[in-house]
Design a protein that fits this description.
The complex is a heterotrimer of chains A (306), B (690) and C (105). Chain A has 306 residues and is mostly helical. Chain A contains 13 helices and 3 strands, in the order H-H-H-H-H-H-H-H-H-E-E-E-H-H-H-H. The chains are: A mainly alpha (306), B mainly alpha (690), C mainly alpha (105).
């Protein structure tokens, strides 16, 4: 049955080939239909393959949006639209991140990609596109209207995806998990003072483990327990075991990513800082170069003759 | 007679000995200052002489302190190691940057730094006005660094480092006037001839490591050192065979560096360098490195019963060979150069018959009087604007009385005039040689001594006595000048005291060191007897009566000649020869010329240095050049013609086929790259994962 | 953090691979320099999704930490590459990648 997925991909690839921009007339509608058929085949295959372990419906929705938008990014003849479809891709991927419980990453993607990088792209498109009198697509420059070696590119892409998917769908067994999963208390223990008594009191109360009026007076993270002072003075204190999930939930996704970054990837952070600085310096240097316009004469004569 | 150390300090003072670390460091600092700071900052270059002299003088003072630190050397067993840092450590092999201090080291250090300082002072006047002033002193500092490392090193590798370092500085200084073709050629010649010897040395060094696994002096020759017959008897057979070769390989290095037959050809040509260089490197210090090496490694040389006799024979033959050449030369510096070769032959004869005391003593005194001779020759050259030809100068004694007097002292010492320094040291060697099993070599030495006296005074009488006449040359320090320089225009003149001062010190040394330091109980004997150069093993006693043999007079063989007798023969002979030289070259020069003319063919051989250079030319240079031509033609005809004409088509066609792929488009390359990745990925997936 | 099973992981890997491949196709097939760079960003999207999916699968945060680095590189690339695009456009008044094929053999 593995080969059914190849068939779906082949249909999709054919559709993509027809959709890629070309100066000649192409049956684009047929291409769209083929593409949609390929995508639908892929989804059906996935539904069948996963059986009981199907992810939520949102996964399928976001995947369809991401792939369809990605196709539009590479097939649209106007770069501005490509950029806007790319935002859609970013949003869909951010949605997938939410499904993967990577909330911080999801919002970071939206803010940095959709908010910052894509704005830069749009500015550059503005700066570097010839003024156009109308919105007629035929007036777009040739390099937007014609793809280069579309057949070769599509076949290459098909081969690449086929090889990668073969690993995913034909490789037997589980992928090894070499790292133990990080559990709640283990993470909390690495940050002294992270879980204060007051916070824990609220947590345990909402979990129904202590009664109203009782409060935590001491926390022993090693043992995973908290000492609780009862409502009335003079009564003996009692010890409550903190559930791991509770403590882990308290340390959110953003905290964990930050912890991991600064515990395990300190050097990487430093290098990333240096790279950003270099990029900034480089961008400034490039911007300051005075350009000799090589194409000006040709373009100029064209403009005059026109 | 006089034991300096004994009277002052009875015990080893480690803190003083540790100062040895700074002996190479000071000249190294001077090298840096000269080579970097002064090279960059022109106005400061005037200071380069002062900086270098200060560094060398500092090293000399340190050398004296180190010697004092050794305390009573008669109590000394072996040497003291001063560790600097770990230099090389690979597997079992270790070579530390460490210094080995024993009395022999001290003697060499005193010679190198002491004579070096004096010559540097002289050079500060001699080289004044030269455009490469700082460069000259940088090279001198480099030389002193290398030479001190050579004598200080505690292992063969450090010795080799210094050995190559002095070779390098020698090359640089011979070619100092690099605009002169002859200087460049001489520098190359010196370097290449030395390579032959150094190759042998390097092989010997590797041989030592191969056989013994260590290269440190202490491990090889200290108490329970590995280089003794008992240990070697336990080694496998191939190692025992290899041991016999090691001394000969090392010897080759010594012959090259110390200009012994047949590798002597570079030294006379080396006189192209500035005269102070000839004095320092090519007379007093560097060329004696070979003698030092054999003296230092004497236990290793004793491993083969033929090694030391070979050294002795080569030394003795070289001595008379060079002396006869010196007899008929007309270039002052060349005469002294051949004289140096001859005197080095004496030293090799000395170590060869295991008379290390005599050899080291002669090394010491020779450094003084030969430096003096070269420097006075330099003064004459300076005065006559580069004139060195004996035939074009005469009677300069009236114009330059001080120079004449100083050179006379040097000549007396070289000729072995009784009670000068050279007389004592030379007699020690001759006495030991005559009473060794190679007695004939000793008599050759005596004959050489007579020749030495004759050619020495031939030079002196021709230059300073007789009718005063001279021709100026047109060179100033190797640079031809078009206009007469101010201070040279008025003819021969006396040198300033900046230049004469060091000469006086050297002259005093040449006169008194024999009486002062020589003798059975003298300082020099003490120093040599308590170093690794001391002759201890029985084998050497048999080969030549060692130093110890002079103590007992009762077991002399039939051919025994007493010390006094040798002294009388060589001293008396020297006096006779001096008188003879005076007769021929002062009073009756016409007679000398007619005799030389009658002896035509022999004189011609001597004048042409036995045609050794020509022999090398025909045996080595021309065949190599012919080979070079052959390869050149091969390259042009076969490689360029046939190969390029045919085989080169294959890559050309292959290139033409691939050319369209290189379309210069980024995405074309990206596509190909992606296809490559896919191919690799597919292989990985099907071969590894599945 | 709850980990996910291999089948769920494979779903996300498929989406990531598809995005990467589409980016690659666009990179090779499009001629507009800006779109070409946009396609590299899309390839980043595929990689980033894969990284986060594996992070979830292994139950640790190394993958998400690497996403930060990918974002860094993407930002740096956008700044530099787009600066270069503007520079190139000013030189030849065209965004066609074929205009810059001076290196052809």
């Amino acid at each position: 049955m593995v080969y059914a997925i190849y068939l779906a991909m082949l249909i999709g690839a054919a559709g993509l080939y027809l959709m890629l921009p070309s100066p000649r007339r192409r049956p684009v509608v047929l291409g769209v239909l083929l593409g949609l058929g390929g995508l639908a085949g892929l989804m059906i295959y996935l539904l069948d393959w996963a059986g009981e372990h199907r992810p939520t419906i949102y996964y399928y929705a976001f995947t369809v949006i991401a792939i369809a938008s990605a196709v539009r990014v590479i097939t649209h003849k106007r770069p501005v639209y490509s950029a806007l479809y790319f935002i859609l891709v970013v949003l869909a991927v951010a949605g997938q991140f939410l499904l993967l419980e990577a909330e911080f990453m999801a919002f970071a993607m939206v803010i940095i990609y959709a908010g910052a990088i894509l704005v830069t792209y749009v500015f550059v498109i503005m700066l570097a596109t010839l003024p156009r009198s109308s919105h007629d697509e035929e007036e777009a420059p040739l390099y937007d209207r014609a793809a280069r070696q579309p057949l070769g590119a599509v076949l290459m892409g098909f081969a690449l995806l086929a090889v990668v998917l073969h690993v995913i769908f034909a490789a037997p067994g589980e992928i090894e998990r070499p790292y133990p999963a990080e559990q709640g208390l283990a993470v909390v223990q690495s940050v002294p003072g992270r879980l204060s008594e007051k916070k824990l009191t609220t947590l345990l109360r909402s979990a129904g483990l202590i009664e109203k009026g009782e409060k935590v007076v001491a926390v022993d993270l090693k043992a995973g327990s908290a000492t609780v002072q009862p409502v009335e003075d003079g009564q003996p204190t009692r010890t409550v075991t903190i559930p791991e999930q509770l403590a882990g939930a308290q340390v959110g996704n953003m905290d964990r990513v930050g912890l991991n970054l600064f515990e395990s990837h300190t050097l990487g952070i430093e290098l990333a800082g240096v790279i950003l600085l270099l990029a900034m310096v480089g961008a400034i240097v490039i911007a300051r170069i005075v350009v000799k316009d090589e194409g000006a004469e040709e373009e100029g004569t064209k403009a005059i003759s026109a | 007679m006089f034991t300096l150390a004994e009277t002052i300090m009875p015990q080893i003072d480690q803190s003083l000995v540790d100062l040895a670390r700074w002996i190479p460091a000071l000249p190294a600092l001077a090298l840096l200052i000269n080579g970097v700071v002064f090279a960059a900052l022109k106005p400061l270059r005037k200071l380069s002489a002062a900086v270098t002299i200060a560094a060398l003088a500092g090293s000399f003072v340190l050398s004296v302190l180190v010697m004092l630190g050794l305390g009573d050397i008669s109590q000394l067993h072996g040497g003291i190691t001063v560790h600097c840092f770990e230099w090389i450590s690979i597997g079992d092999f270790t070579a530390n940057f460490a210094f080995f201090i024993d009395p022999l080291t001290c003697v060499m250090l005193l010679v190198v730094t002491g004579v070096g300082t004096l010559i540097a002072i002289y050079a500060s006047g001699y080289m004044a006005g030269d455009p490469g002033y700082y460069r000259f002193f940088a090279y001198i500092a480099l030389f002193i660094v290398a030479m001190t490392l050579l004598v200080l090193g505690d292992n063969l590798l450090l010795l080799f480092l210094g050995w190559e370092g002095v070779g390098l500085s020698s090359y640089l200084l011979i070619g100092y006037y690099y605009r002169k073709l002859s200087a460049r050629d001489a520098a190359k010649k010196a370097f290449i001839v030395n390579r032959v010897g150094d190759f042998g040395f390097a092989l010997g060094l590797m041989g030592v490591f191969l056989v013994f696994g260590i290269i440190g002096y202490e491990g090889l020759m200290g108490h329970h050192g590995l280089a003794d017959a008992e240990h070697i008897a336990t080694l496998p057979a191939w190692k025992q065979n290899l041991v016999l070769w090691i001394p000969f390989l090392l010897m080759l290095g010594a012959f090259g560096k110390s200009a012994q037959l047949p590798l002597h050809v570079w030294l006379p040509d080396a006189m192209e360098g500035p005269t102070p260089v000839s004095a320092l490197i090519h007379a007093a210090t560097m060329v004696t490195a070979g003698v030092y090496m054999i003296a230092r490694l004497l236990p290793i040389f004793q491993l083969s019963e033929y090694a030391l006799p070979t050294v002795a024979i080569v030394g003795g033959v070289t001595a008379i060979f060079a002396a006869t050449i010196a007899l008929c030369q007309f270039d002052i510096k060349r005469i002294w150069a051949y004289s140096t070769v001859s005197q080095l032959g004496y030293m090799f004869l000395g170590v060869g018959v295991a008379a290390t005391y005599g050899a080291v003593f002669h090394l010491f005194t020779h450094a003084f009087f030969k430096a003096l001779l070269f420097l006075t020759a330099g003064s004459v050259m300076h005065a006559l604007a580069g004139q060195l030809d004996l035939r074009r100068m005469s009677g300069l004694g009236k114009k330059m009385p001080i120079t004449a007097g100083l050179m006379l002292i040097g000549c007396l010492a070289l000729a072995g005039f009784p009670f000068t320094a050279g007389y004592f040291s030379k007699d020690e060697i001759l006495y030991q040689a005559i009473n060794s099993e190679f007695g004939w070599l000793g008599w050759i030495g005596v004959l050489t001594a007579l020749l030495t006296a004759f050619y020495t005074f031939r030079l002196w009488f021709r230059v300073f006595m007789g009718e005063t006449k001279y021709e100026m040359s047109n060179e100033h320090h190797g640079y031809a000048v078009d206009h007469p320089l101010d201070d040279h225009a008025h003819g021969p003149h006396e040198m300033s005291w900046l230049m004469n001062g060091p000469l006086v010190v050297l002259a005093v040394g040449a006169l008194v060191f024999g009486v002062w330091l020589g003798g059975k109980e003298g300082w020099m004997m003490q120093m040599v007897e308590h170093s690794s150069a001391a002759v201890t093993s029985h084998a050497s006693h048999d080969a030549g009566h060692g130093a110890a043999a002079s103590h007992g007079d009762d077991h002399h063989g039939p051919g025994y000649v007493s010390h006094g007798m040798v002294g009388a023969i060589s001293g008396g002979g020297a006096v006779v020869m001096i008188v003879l030289a005076g007769f021929f070259f002062w009073k009756r020069r016409d007679l000398a010329e007619s005799i030389a003319a009658k002896l035509g063919p022999i004189t011609k051989i001597f004048e042409n240095k036995y045609y050794v250079d020509e022999a090398y030319r025909f045996a080595i240079v021309l065949p190599l050049r012919a080979l070079g031509w052959f390869f050149y033609l091969f390259d042009r005809v076969i490689i360029d013609g046939v190969v390029l004409g045919s085989i080169s088509w294959a890559p050309r066609i292959a290139g033409a086929l691939q050319k369209p792929g290189q379309n210069g488009l980024l995405q074309g390359y990206a596509l190909l790259m992606a296809l490559g990745i896919i191919a690799v990925l597919a292989v990985v997936v099907y071969a590894v994962v599945l | 953090m709850e980990t996910i099973d291999a089948i769920t992981l494979n779903h996300y890997l498929l989406t990531g691979a598809a995005l990467f491949t589409l980016g690659m196709i666009g990179f090779v097939a499009r001629r507009n320099l800006i779109v070409i760079f946009l396609c590299t960003e899309m390839m980043f999207q595929g990689i980033v999704l894969t990284l986060v999916a594996f992070s979830r699968y292994h139950g640790n945060f190394d993958g998400q930490a690497f996403v930060i680095f990918v974002l860094t590189i993407a930002a740096a690339e956008a700044a530099l590459a787009l600066g270069l695009v503007v520079y190139l456009y000013r030189r030849k008044n065209t965004l066609d990648a074929e205009a810059w094929s001076d290196m052809k053999g």
